[in-house]
């Protein structure tokens, strides 16, 4: 079996693709954008949580604050502003992170063991202030709990009477596994990097060449259609693998610089893990580019081919969302399926868990088998006159 024509066709398509600098820049930008964006969002979330350690609270009605303002002032990182103006108006002017307004009968209600009303004003559109609002709500609940305990003790009642159930909650997930749940969505962008990187060659070397009437000249050279199909498929696969390498490299660099400790998470991704993710995802590149090439041959125009191949992004995003919402990685048989198997194995690598390599091998073989079937179908299309004259 002579594979030199296959290599020649693949080399031709890769050389033509490398000449399009704008297309290359677009593909690199697409592969980099997803992991960089997710990393930026996680890092911003960690910064916001850290900023909640320093919170400024404005209290309207200092004469009515009583022991509450004294108690809040003793909490670490809390500073108080005692206001003599309307609390809602002060909140609208964003004079502080959180504004509290105590009821006129606040002190009397506390003295008579009645619920004392406190109004909290905040702006929900200021996302950076929401962690501080949550901390203030937690402080007020804690102050109320301490008062309740003191009232029970004064009345000679044990505080344990008000707590009939003592719940001890344990999270058996490690910090690495909790971090992996947040970062699973990055895997979707890695797969999207493969799709977008391989799409340019898959669509241009088939539907594009047919519109330019250069595909007919290639087929008239006497090269068997299966070799032409295999060459174009391999060229698109090389581009998809390159896109995946770029996406994984960006993910590795971004994750290594994330300050996830502020979120109560620890995450460590070393080069061996990055290589393992590449090995797991590698067979998927062969299948995705085969689907893209097959769709491009089936399409009637270059624009239609691009529209068809962009549809592949939908299941990719859907799988990422499903893994984020449900524990699909623990389901029996998922590890043997294309796309789902690769996603499950890569998720386990991010979580620092053992990878079932037997399932990875099987799902990879299924990917390659399906890719071979699609390449055979592409060769049948190229051998047909309808591929040249249109449908």
Keywords:
single chain, 391 residues, mainly alpha, D-Maltodextrin-Binding Protein, domain 2, 2 domains, 65% helix, elongated
Could you characterize what this model shows?
The chain has helices at residues 4-19, 21-51, 67-73, 87-92, 106-111, 130-154, 175-211, 215-219, 225-255, 271-298, 302-310, 313-325, 340-350, 357-383, 386-389; strands at 55-60, 78-83, 98-102, 118-121. It is mainly α and 391 residues long. The protein has 2 domains: 4-46 and 175-389, no CATH class; 52-162, D-Maltodextrin-Binding Protein, domain 2 (3-Layer(aba) Sandwich). A 4-stranded mixed β-sheet has the order 2-1-3-4. The radius of gyration is 30 Å and the shape is elongated. The two termini are 32 Å apart.
Put the structure in a nutshell:
The chain has about 400 residues and is mainly α.
Give the helix/strand class: mainly alpha
Major sheet: order of its strands? 2-1-3-4
Q: Tally the structural domains.
A: 2
List unreliable stretches of 5+ residues. none
Q: Note the main sheet.
A: 4 strands, mixed
Helix content: 55-70%
Distance between the termini: 32 Å
Mean pLDDT equals 78
Topology:
Blueprint: H1 4-19, H2 21-51, E1 55-60, H3 67-73, E2 78-83, H4 87-92, E3 98-102, H5 106-111, E4 118-121, H6 130-154, H7 175-211, H8 215-219, H9 225-255, H10 271-298, H11 302-310, H12 313-325, H13 340-350, H14 357-383, H15 386-389
Parallel strand pairs: 1-2, 1-3
Antiparallel strand pairs: 3-4
